[in-house]
């Protein structure tokens, strides 16, 4: 809006008064009735209104002149003063109309300015009451086992600052380290770590299962511990209804560790169990364990459990077939498909999260889900998925697939020096996803208009490496 077109509140009142006065005069002049009918096109024309529109909104039609000379020429000399008032009133009505329209537009645009929901993300806390040590996989990195809980506190300090819109937190797995098992500290360490999340009950944390949890607990123990933790924080039933694990000592039965929740009606979040088919957390008689051993044997050519946890002779994308990874089973895939179908029907968008990466360009190949392509193909059957978030790889990574879905791997907290941080604040807008990385975490601004309606796409491929991801930028934030 240009300066000359600005109308403040007092001007608007003045305009309305003048308009009312002109209308009273108009009604008192009965001889004017016909003139008004004859000239209504002039005074109510879109051209008059168009004078007050933004240039790009104006119709191309030539603008008529609403001047008093043309009225005089038409034989209305004696009525010129009242006509002038009426014409001004009409022009003023046009201004009011524009003012009202701009107000409506401002309200509308606010819908796009404000995020639908904002939430926090952190991963790989891997707490242990253990001295710092050099990371075995990368000697340039140090693992700060005890310091990781301070990192969690710092992240919540940021998310709880005045004016924060953070509604919940996603914890992407490996909340405690496997070292705890050897120290006999599994339960103590998990409780100590969970208490750092539970004390922030106004910002509930949703956890996904990592391989390190399953080094410490079997699935039944873990399900019971997480259920107990969820019960301590305040999550409304309409957002999340956890399934209470039943006590059952049968070796084959197992609780389900994947779930969904809807923080707002416009968005569904789905947590995947990336170790559904794996050798972690199961009794050795469990069919999912047996299936996983067959997969690992077929790739490694031996049955030595400990040597399944390295690349060995594996090459290329096959390096993902290690015992620290797993696959999403058929039952879970069917459930995922149904959940995405429901979201399509509801017009919801979906963010899926799990510990292990899906897109080969988003992380090291040794950190990929065994059947990542099957999961991505399910995503591609629907138009609701906007992003998949993962941890596990301990460094930031991003990939965009051929269907416009973003795959983001987040930095791990464990290897974050005490003078910095590694967490993210994510805002979902109707037209974009904003990932605000803190400290070592990267930031991304991802437009969502490019999402394809893939239902009619015959040339579907799970991964399109020709699609260039937007360049990430790092934003440093003091916490
Ligand atoms: Zn992991």
Automatic annotation (TrEMBL):
Residues 456-467 have a biased composition (Acidic residues). InterPro entries: Calcineurin-like_PHP, Metallo-depent_PP-like. Residues 455-479 are annotated as: Disordered. Residues 118-395 form the Calcineurin-like phosphoesterase domain. One of its GO terms (molecular function) is CDP-glycerol diphosphatase activity. PANTHER family: MANGANESE-DEPENDENT ADP-RIBOSE_CDP-ALCOHOL DIPHOSPHATASE, PTHR16509. This is Manganese-dependent ADP-ribose/CDP-alcohol diphosphatase. The lineage of its organism: Eukaryota, Metazoa, Ecdysozoa, Arthropoda, Chelicerata. The gene is adprm_2.
């Amino acid at each position: 809006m240009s300066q000359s077109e600005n109308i403040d509140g007092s001007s608007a009142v003045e305009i309305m008064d003048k308009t009312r006065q002109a209308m009273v005069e108009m009604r008192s002049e009965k001889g004017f009735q016909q003139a008004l009918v004859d000239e209504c096109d002039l005074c109510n024309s879109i051209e008059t209104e168009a004078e007050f529109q933004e240039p790009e909104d104006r119709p191309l039609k030539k603008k008529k002149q609403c001047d008093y000379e043309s009225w005089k020429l038409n034989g209305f000399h004696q009525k010129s003063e009242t006509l002038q008032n009426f014409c001004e009133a009409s022009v003023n009505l046009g201004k009011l109309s524009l003012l009202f329209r701009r107000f409506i537009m401002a309200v509308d645009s606010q819908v796009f300015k404000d995020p639908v929901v904002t939430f926090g993300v952190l991963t790989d806390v891997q707490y242990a009451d253990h001295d710092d040590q050099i990371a075995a996989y990368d000697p340039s990195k140090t693992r700060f086992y005890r310091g990781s809980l301070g990192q969690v506190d710092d992240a919540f300090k940021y998310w709880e600052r005045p004016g924060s819109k953070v509604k919940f937190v996603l914890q992407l797995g490996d909340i405690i380290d496997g070292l705890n098992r050897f120290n006999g500290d599994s339960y103590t360490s998990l409780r100590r770590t969970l208490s750092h999340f539970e004390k922030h009950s106004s910002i509930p944390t949703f956890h996904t299962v990592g391989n390190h949890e399953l080094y410490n607990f079997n699935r039944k123990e873990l399900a019971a511990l997480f259920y107990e933790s969820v019960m301590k924080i305040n999550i409304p039933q309409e957002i999340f209804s956890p399934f209470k694990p039943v006590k059952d000592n049968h070796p084959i039965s197992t609780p389900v560790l994947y779930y969904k929740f809807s923080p707002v009606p416009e968005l569904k979040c789905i947590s995947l169990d990336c170790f559904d088919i794996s050798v972690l957390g199961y009794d050795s008689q469990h069919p999912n364990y047996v299936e996983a051993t067959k997969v690992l044997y077929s790739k490694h050519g031996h049955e030595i459990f400990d040597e399944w946890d390295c690349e060995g002779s594996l090459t290329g994308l096959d390096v993902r077939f290690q015992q620290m990874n797993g696959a999403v089973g058929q039952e879970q895939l069917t459930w995922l498909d149904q959940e995405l179908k429901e979201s399509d029907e509801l017009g919801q968008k979906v963010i899926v999260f799990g510990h292990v990466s899906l897109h080969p360009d988003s992380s090291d190949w040794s950190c990929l889900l065994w059947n990542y392509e099957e999961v991505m193909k399910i995503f591609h059957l629907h138009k609701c998925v906007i992003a998949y978030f993962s941890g596990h790889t301990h460094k930031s990574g991003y990939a965009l697939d051929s269907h416009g879905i973003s795959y983001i791997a987040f930095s791990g907290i464990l290897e974050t020096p005490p003078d910095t941080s590694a967490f993210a604040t994510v805002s979902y807008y109707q037209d974009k996803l904003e990932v605000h990385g803190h400290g070592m975490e990267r930031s991304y601004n991802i437009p969502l208009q490019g999402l394809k309606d893939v239902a009619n796409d015959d040339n579907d491929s799970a991964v399109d490496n020709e699609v260039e991801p937007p360049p990430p930028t790092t934003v440093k934030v003091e916490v």
